[in-house]
Amino acid sequence: MQRMLHDLRHALRSPSRNPRMATVLGRLLGIAFLACFVTGILSHYLQEPLQWMVFATRPVWLYQISQAIHITAGILCFPLILGKLHVIYPSLFQTPPVRSIGHFLERGSIALLVAASLVQITIGLLNTYQLYFLFPFPFRQTHWALSFVVMAALAIHIGVKLPIIARYWRKKDSYDDDGTVIPLDDATDRSQNPERPEGATIPDLREPETTGVTGRLFRWIDRAPLADVSAGQARTSRRGFLATIGVAATALFVTTGGQSFRALDATNLFGPRKQGVGPNALPVNRTAQAAGVEESAMAPDWTLTVSNGETSRVFTRAELEALPQFEVDLPIACVEGWSQVASWKGPRMKDLADAVGAPVSAAFRATSLEQKGNYAVMEMGPEYVRDELTLVALELNGAPLDIQHGYPARMIAPARPGVLQTKWLSTLEVIA
Ligand code: HEM
Ligand SMILES: Nc1nc2c(c(=O)[nH]1)N[C@H]1C(S)=C(S)[C@@H](COP(=O)(O)O)O[C@H]1N2
Ligand SMILES: [Mo]
Predict the structure, then answer these.
(1) pLDDT class for 105, splitting at 50, 70, 90?
(2) CB-based contacts of 289: which residues, under 8 Å, 6+ apart?
(3) pTM over 0.85
(4) Which ligand 1 atom lies nearest to the CA of residue 151?
(5) How confident is the model at residue 198 (pLDDT cuts 50, 70, 90)?
(6) How many Å apart are CA 139 and CA 143, to the nearest integer?
(7) 70 lines ligand 1 (CB under 6 A)
(8) Dihedral (C-alpha) 303, 305, 306, 309: value to the nearest 10 degrees?
(9) Distance 316 CA to ligand 2 centre (A)
(10) DSSP string covering 221-285, please?
């Protein structure tokens, strides 16, 4: 029993828990968070543009790659955050909890950063599996607001830790000759490393005091002597720790990346969508049944109404088929992260706009046969309306559009989120 406790104590007293490791993981997390933030901002404004915004329509896979990066970097945050928490957890239990204004800012920003990040990545992941019902608040608004909380807390955190980050940024400055990590409170001791620049003072951040039952437990573990761990063993242990995170990250990427990267489709075990699976060899987001359009979409008297103020034209499906037809390869890139390129055929949106004499600067509103919800109405700026790749699609992958993909007609435009590729079109009207 004594021996087991002793071993456990040593197993938990990880040599990985040092400022160099915190810096290494922090850097990776910083990159992942920034990638999520930038791609998230793009995703937000594509869906809710400000008045003056005009978007690029090339490359056609702009949103596809953006959202692929968002979801991939987001998923990789899980092993990175868990690793980082493992490295720094003793410093989460300090006493007294607040020592000064600076200290309060530091503690507060870390508490906020940890809490907000964990909520952010958890609801993000649940969203990709459409498990919204597991949390009682609206996803997009919460995820949007939290992204600013996370980034602000991260900025403060980096600011506060800048001396340590700078100190442990480079590998060669972080270890002694025998491979021992230079501990924080030794960082100014030049006798250990004569190459260290003069006067590089590091704030006093020795092993913090811990409090409470868990605190005492952690302290007990932390005070376990490391004497029987040689520098070489510690190095092996550190490498093992990094390797564990690396393997977890790679495994997650390989088993989920296929939803957004075609090359990884064969190993896609956990991603919510598979390439080529579904009617017309394309996955379906919302079914006709769920959208309540099974009857209206199959109605023989279906027409598409295109209007510009008083001018209005009504097209049957046969009349749409009689217009000049174009074939384009464009991705469906869902905001939830999965995407797939498909081949679409139908008349150009700009030809329909011309048919009602819409000015070149005109934006359009599209409505679906679907009556309720966020998908019933979609707006489209002139950069998409006038793009020659924007089609009212009637065919998909060489066959008539399946009802699940928007029969009789659906919108497909380059570089837009899937949620704006409205299915089961009913009307197109000029709005500006
Ligand atoms: C620090 C990490 C993250 C930040 C800063 C971040 C930020 C954002 C932002 C700003 C948006 C746009 C929200 C809007 O349209 O209003 C967004 C959307 C989204 N994020 Fe994240 N995100 C993070 C992590 C994640 C993770 C880990 C996942 C999933 C694995 C995820 C999944 C999504 C999804 C699916 C959307 C699209 C939501 C929609 O438009 O319906 N995010 N993210
Ligand atoms: N009317 C309508 N159009 C819609 C949707 C919907 O639910 N209703 N889903 C959108 C979303 S979120 C995506 S990703 C794409 C998916 O297209 P697909 O189901 O043909 O693959 O359709 C979009 N168009
Ligand atoms: Mo979607």
Answers:
(1) confident
(2) none
(3) yes
(4) 5
(5) very low
(6) 6
(7) yes
(8) 170
(9) 22
(10) HHTS--TTS-HHHHHHHHHHHHHHHHHHHHHHHHHHGGGT-GGGGGG-SSSS--TT-SGGGS--S
Angle at the Cα of 146 from the Cα atoms of 141 and 149, rounded to 5 degrees:
140
Straight-line distance from the first to the last Cα atom of the chain, in angstroms, rounded to the nearest whole number? 78
Is there an atom of ligand 1 within 6 Å of 350 CB?
no
Task: Give me the amino acid identity at 229.
Answer: V
Q: How far is ligand 3, taken at its centre, from the CA of residue 335, in Å?
A: 5
How close is the Cα of 221 to the center of ligand 3, in Å? 48
Question: Taking all residues of the chain, what is their mean pLDDT, rounded to a whole number?
Answer: 89
Residue owning the nearest CA to atom 33 of ligand 1: 124
* Selection from 417, 80, 68, 37 nearest residue 256 by Cα: 68
Protein residue closest via CA to atom 8 of ligand 1: 40
Query: Each residue of 16-72: pLDDT tens digit?
Result: 888 999 999 999 999 999 999 999 999 999 999 999 999 999 999 999 999 999 999
Least confident of 125-134, 147-156, 189-198: 189-198
